[in-house]
Amino acid sequence: MKYAVVAPVAAGVTADPAWMAAFARHLEACGFESIVVVEHTVLMTQYTSVYPYDPSGRVELAADTPVPDPLDLLAFLAAHTERLGLATGVLVLPNHHPVVLAKRVATVDALSGGRVRLAVGTGWLAEELRACGADFSSRGRRADEQLQVLRALWADTPQGAGFHGEFFDFEHAMSYPKPAARIPIHIGGHSRAAARRAGRFGDGFQPLGVAGAELVELVSQMRATAIEYDRDPDALELSLGHAVTKIDAGRAEKLGALGADRVVLAMPAVTALEEATDMVSACAQRLGLTS
């Protein structure tokens, strides 16, 4: 089992360079696989969209919470660590043009020595997507093309990459540097569409906030779609969520029985660095990552 920790964006500390550098180094020293950073290009003071991960329908982040660009933040953290995986969780695909995104992600991966895991989603905040120039209703079809564009530009194609779709169209395009290794793309989300997207295009599925029969159905949908497109469903990773303060070996074993390859651990909104690192240390001790 692999364990990742989400940087505590709600604490307002993820744009603090000293805090984040020390936190990332501590995760690495404790034996965690990766650090995960979230994305919102903008947050809104007023919105009608429904946040799907809280019964209130409202996101817990205040609109003025610092949310650094995830790729810039991961590049910064790469310079302060040696082995720690660098993951988005999730990057909001509709906010990005895939040709530019391919260059940015490959650059971070090349400079970090192949440590990037790109977890992506289609977004829930319609007002954010509109501010970024994306159409909310077509974001799923657009995401499917974006994933194909990324793979096309990362491939070693002597004559240059080409893609001809509904949203993106180009030919003979060369994008360098290439990633240091194959960048795993994991699909985040809680819908059947996300599960299908993971089965068709992804290297993994991250349905955080889903449990029970709903989770079983989504994983089955992912696997069925992989088979439909002649892909090996057993090669796709499953990342499930839990809390840094609650996870232990027994709970991790139960998640493993559900098929989890990785547990993505949420941090509480802790602003004091020492308190945060103590929580992480205690978590690592419970999981047997450190003696």
Overview of this protein structure:
The chain has 291 residues and is an alpha/beta fold. It has a single domain, classed as TIM Barrel, CATH 3.20.20.30. Helices cover 38% and strands 17% of the residues. It is globular and about 50 Å long. The relative contact order is 0.15. The mean pLDDT is 97.
How many helix segments?
9
Shape type:
globular
CA radius of gyration: 18 Å
User: What fraction, in percent, of the residue positions are helical?
Assistant: 25-40%
Q: Please report which band the strand proportion falls in: under 5%, 5-15%, 15-25%, 25-35%, 35-45% or over 45%.
A: 15-25%
* CATH third-tier fold name: TIM Barrel
The CATH homologous superfamily is named Luciferase-like domain
> Count the strands?
11
Structure, briefly:
The protein is of the alpha/beta class. The protein contains 9 helices and 11 strands.
What is the topological layout?
Elements: E1 2-6, H1 17-30, E2 34-37, H2 70-78, E3 85-88, E4 91-92, H3 98-112, E5 116-121, H4 126-131, H5 139-154, E6 161-164, E7 169-173, E8 185-188, H6 192-201, E9 204-206, H7 212-228, E10 237-243, H8 249-257, E11 262-266, H9 273-287
Parallel strand pairs: 1-2, 1-11, 2-3, 3-5, 4-5, 5-8, 8-9, 9-10, 10-11
Antiparallel strand pairs: 6-7
Helix pairs in contact: 1-9, 2-3, 3-5, 6-7
Keywords:
alpha/beta; 8-stranded parallel β-barrel; two-stranded antiparallel ribbon; 9 helices; 11 strands; 38% helix; globular
